[in-house]
Design a protein that fits this description.
Oligomer: heterodimer
Shape of chain A: globular
Helix content of chain A: 10-25%
Order of helices and strands of chain A: HEEEEEEEEEEEEEEEE
Structural class of chain A: mainly beta
Order of helices and strands of chain B: HEEEEEEEEEEEEHE
Distance between the termini of chain A: 96 Å
Number of helices of chain A: 1
Radius of gyration of chain B: 20 Å
Strand content of chain A: over 45%
Chain lengths: ~220, ~260
């Protein structure tokens, strides 16, 4: 009997360890915050700070003064700018996050295990070993534009509604017009000011690039 | 130095006028406008955008008269400062030659007056610019801009001062949210402040197209029908001559390349 109890305890402990290990391996963790950052789990929101874990289904949001750097556990980090909302769709081998507002930087640390994709509206950015920025732009005709630019590596951007896709190389960006039409990749001046740093110990991680810069300022033209 | 040159120029002009005054007055003002019908202008501008400042350098040359001779040439340096979203102010210096003024007539043969050669005469201009502009999003296409360009121009040669006013309407043809072409319609008017006898000495409707080849390079094609009025100068009238007024109208085609950099 004692042997059975001992075996059961050992088995339960082992299972618990395995479950615990599995959960922690699939969780993400907030590494750094500024201002207001909340994590919404199952409809309930809580203030978040460094060390807060995030799981699949959670929504990480930043306020007007907020910023958050989140480790997504599979060698992927994301940085949320102010007024940004990201849903963690899945974690693990096929990490997927969904941007519903604001702007997001991503970075792959080392070799990516599995896949990583970012959704923004109908746009999906599939990544293999890269660093890129994705943000909602202006809403010109009902649906907002989605801007994406790549700092290193390559991003495969696809639009579900049209089936279009394009590879965006490092140093180039695209605009997904109204979240539906892909523009050819090209260099954009406004991307030069992006702050890709996600490590507070290496300097400021704040990025103040206005998405208005992505649009031509028609009032700024003087030719003579 | 400039004042001395201006004074010398004025004296020389006066001397020419006095010399030719009897013939000119008695010739029943046989002054004729240049006989060209078309002028061709080329220019290239470099614009460096640094924050609220746009630094500008421009070189312009123009072929004029019936023989399309190289007459006008100018170098302009200066810049704009964006004071508000809807208002830019600017200041420019221009070094130019080949400009014709009221007293630049000469009579090569009796009763036949023509322009003196001014291509070797350098003139300095100081320009102050105030240009409010507004979006007109309610118009079809929504990418219209109306601008009222206003300039005060001080030409150190004979101390001539004038005000330029140019209402301008621009439509930007956007492709993928970026301008591919813009189309401009404008009407430019120069009001002399201290010379001439007319309210407007030069005016022209102006139509232009800019092709935005890349974000850095833009090609320009513009056309206008330019009218200039030369009239009696103070010196001319002071010499006791009867007033004269000559209007010269011609077509002007402009080609330009505009380079924009934002380091």
């Amino acid at each position: 009997m004692g042997l059975v109890r001992g075996f059961l305890f050992a088995a339960i402990t082992a299972c618990a360890f395995v479950v615990s290990f599995t959960v922690s391996a699939l969780d993400g963790k907030i590494l750094y915050t500024e201002g207001t950052v909340t994590v919404t789990t199952g409809g309930s929101s809580q203030d978040a700070g460094p060390g807060t874990t995030v799981s699949a289904g959670d929504v990480v949001s930043t306020g007007a003064d907020g910023l958050a750097v989140v480790d997504l556990s599979n060698a992927t980090q994301i940085k949320l700018r102010e007024n940004t909302s990201v849903t963690i769709g899945a974690l693990g081998d096929n990490t997927q996050v969904s941007l519903s507002a604001g702007a997001l930087f991503t970075r792959i640390l080392g070799k990516l295990a599995g896949t990583f994709s970012v959704q923004a509206g109908m746009t999906t950015a599939g990544v293999r070993g890269t660093e890129f920025f994705v943000a909602f732009g202006r809403t010109v005709d009902q649906e907002p534009d989605v801007w994406l630019c790549v700092n290193s590596g390559t991003v495969d951007v696809s639009v579900a509604s049209s089936g279009q896709h394009v590879l965006v190389p490092a140093g180039k960006g695209i605009n997904i017009i109204g979240g539906a039409k892909l523009t050819p990749p090209r260099g954009y001046r406004w991307t030069k000011g992006l702050n890709w740093n996600m490590d507070p110990s290496s300097g400021s991680v704040e990025d103040h690039t206005s998405m208005n810069q992505a649009y031509d300022d028609l009032l700024n033209h003087d030719y003579n | 130095m400039t004042t001395t040159r201006a004074a010398a120029g004025a004296l020389a002009a006066l001397a020419v006028l006095v010399l030719y005054a009897p013939q000119r007055g008695s010739a029943d003002n046989a002054l004729v406008a240049p006989n060209g019908v078309l002028e061709l202008e080329g220019h290239t501008s470099v614009i460096v955008q640094t924050g609220a400042f746009d630094l500008l350098a421009d070189v312009t040359g123009r072929l004029e008269d019936a023989g399309l001779t190289f007459q006008y040439r100018a170098l302009t340096l200066g810049g704009y400062y964006r004071l508000f979203k809807n208002l830019k102010v600017g200041a420019f210096y221009r070094l130019q030659a080949g400009v014709r003024h009221d007293d630049d007539w000469t009579n090569l043969t009796p009763l036949l007056w023509s322009w003196a050669t001014t291509t070797g005469r350098l003139e300095n201009e100081l320009i102050a610019d105030v240009s409010p502009r507004f979006l007109l999003p309610f118009l079809p296409g929504r990418s219209w801009v109306i601008m009222l360009k206003g300039r005060y121009v001080y030409n150190t040669f004979e101390n001539q001062q004038s005000i330029m006013v140019r209402p301008e309407l621009t439509y930007f043809w956007l492709v993928d949210r970026q301008p591919l072409f813009d189309f401009q319609a404008a009407y430019e008017m120069y009001f002399p402040l201290n010379f001439g006898t007319t309210t407007i000495y030069e005016s022209y409707p102006w139509l232009g197209i800019h092709y935005h080849l890349t974000p850095e390079v833009m090609l320009e094609l513009a056309g206008s029908y330019k009218s200039t009025v030369w009239s009696s100068s103070q010196d001319w009238l002071a010499a006791g001559n009867s007033p004269y007024q000559v209007t010269y109208s011609r077509w002007l085609l402009t080609f330009g390349v505009i380079w924009t950099f934002a380091p």
